[in-house]
Specification:
Strand order of the largest sheet: 6-2-1-7-17-16
CATH superfamily of the largest domain: FAD/NAD(P)-binding domain
Radius of gyration: 22 Å
CATH class of the largest domain: Alpha Beta
Largest sheet: 6 strands, mixed
CATH topology of the largest domain: FAD/NAD(P)-binding domain
Length: 451
């Protein structure tokens, strides 16, 4: 039974953002009802009933906090005891300098943590429409797969037409079916432990045949309501990239740089397909950058053209789903509240941020805003010079509402640090990144002292 009490915060959606919000509120002593419709109702992409299920990649991207904006976001969230980062660290699998996880262990741990918390109640029913008015404090974190009933209700209360784009899922291969007489283990430029990825080389002729097959392969049909939906540039299907030019993939996810084929050390491959470990046992590997809308039979046929994958068995084939988000800079306050109904606060990918970590980060901030509201405490948002602050600023007041599109965290969202050092010399790109992260660390430390 759902608790009804003005002290309770209702969270709609048990994904990364919703789970992080619930954790932050429970830590603050605030009772939470977390509403997750699965498994009674499901989506086109989810496969389990677990909270915080990862439906696409198992990577949280770079964990380099000194030179990468998402790595900096990881570090800041760790300092705020993020449940998502805690579980990711506990279930980490090799991925060079990236933070990749055993997806099942990751979501199972989060589910167990929240199920066992005395202040968290998990309600397995769909919130089919706008939350009832007697829910005085609500965080909506339903993510990119928001149910049509709830999405329609949000559109009505905001007088907006929901924006949407397609997001695609990459296939996962059983390691034991990969031919290691052809494939080999190596990270680009030997980063990480130097052997975090499986590599499959292609000659120029083989690559061209593969590109032709991608372009001519049978694709899944779109439903009428999906046909005009654009793709997010950061997650294009591989066949869409192939259609942009014959060498697009060779200069993108299949670039051969920083790698040497030990079976043919004197021959440079024209292109290389990489696979990244997907579970802690190292038995499953996902095909990096191979999001696809090819039909299942075509995926098996075409991806077995890749040298080393001729006999590959797939634990999961690729797929595609529609992603829905709102025009947050127009509709939300700086504290993530819906201007039309301030009792409703939004977090995660429904706000138009893109990426696992960004989604969880906004869930974390929504939890902190709500906890302060419930306890009567003051809460100053993190400085916009930090990764958390820059992301929050972008989705609430920083982006142009007339051209709002999904965005990953990047240094372009931060206030500029300048292009010249103290000696008047133009800074290198690597030095500018360090300037961003050094400033962020200092400003976050000051902010944390006054939280």
């Amino acid at each position: 039974m759902t608790q009804k009490n003005d002290k309770i915060v209702h969270i709609v959606g048990g994904g990364l953002a919703g789970c992080e919000s619930a954790w932050q509120l429970a830590r603050a002593g605030i009772p939470v009802n977390l509403h997750e419709m699965r498994p009674k109702s499901t989506t086109a992409a989810h496969q389990t009933a677990a909270l915080a299920e990862l439906v696409c990649s198992n990577s949280f991207r770079s964990d380099d906090a000194s030179a990468n904006a998402v790595g900096l976001l990881h570090e800041e969230m760790r300092q705020l005891d993020s449940l998502i980062l805690r579980s990711a660290d506990a279930h980490r699998v090799p991925a060079g300098t990236a933070l990749a996880v055993d997806r099942d262990g990751f979501s199972t741990a989060i589910t167990q943590t929240l199920e066992e918390h005395s202040l968290v109640t998990i309600d397995r029913h769909e919130v089919a429409g706008l939350p009832p008015e007697d829910w005085t404090s609500v965080i909506i974190a339903t993510g990119p797969l928001t149910s049509s009933n709830l999405a329609d209700s949000i559109a009505k209360v905001t007088s907006e037409t929901a924006l949407a784009f397609f997001d695609a899922i990459a296939p996962i291969v059983h390691r034991e079916t990969i031919d290691f007489d052809i494939a080999w283990f190596q990270s680009r430029y030997d980063k990480g432990d130097g052997k975090d990825y499986i590599n499959c080389p292609m000659s120029e002729a083989h690559y061209q045949s593969f590109i032709d097959a991608l372009k001519n392969g049978q694709k899944t049909e779109f439903r009428d309501w999906e046909k005009d939906t654009p793709y997010f540039e950061g997650c294009l299907p591989i066949e869409v990239m192939a259609e942009r030019g014959p060498q697009t993939l060779a200069h993108g996810p299949m670039k051969p740089v920083g790698l040497t084929d030990p079976n043919n050390p004197n021959v440079k491959p024209h292109a290389i397909v990489q696979l990244r470990q997907d579970n802690a046992l190292g038995t499953l590997y996902n095909m990096v950058g191979f999001q696809t809308k090819l039909s299942y039979s075509e995926q098996i046929r075409i991806f077995r053209m890749i040298p080393g994958l001729e006999k590959a068995e797939f634990a999961r084939l690729g797929g595609i789903h529609r992603n829905t988000f709102m025009n947050s800079p127009k509709l939300l306050s700086p504290s993530l509240c819906l201007k039309a109904q301030p009792r409703l606060r939004f977090a995660g990918q429904i706000t138009g941020c893109e990426g696992y970590v960004e989604s969880a980060a906004l869930g974390l901030l929504a939890g902190l805003f709500t906890a302060a509201e419930k306890t009567g405490a003051s809460f100053t948002p993190p400085p916009e010079t930090t990764a958390l602050g820059a992301l929050l600023n972008h989705v609430t007041i920083g982006a142009d509402p007339e051209a709002y599109q999904p965005m990953n965290i990047n240094f372009g969202l931060f206030p500029p640090v300048g292009r010249y050092n103290n000696d008047g010399k133009r800074m290198k790109k690597s030095d500018r990144r360090l300037a961003y992260t050094d400033r962020a660390r200092k400003d976050l430390a000051v902010w944390l002292k006054h939280m």
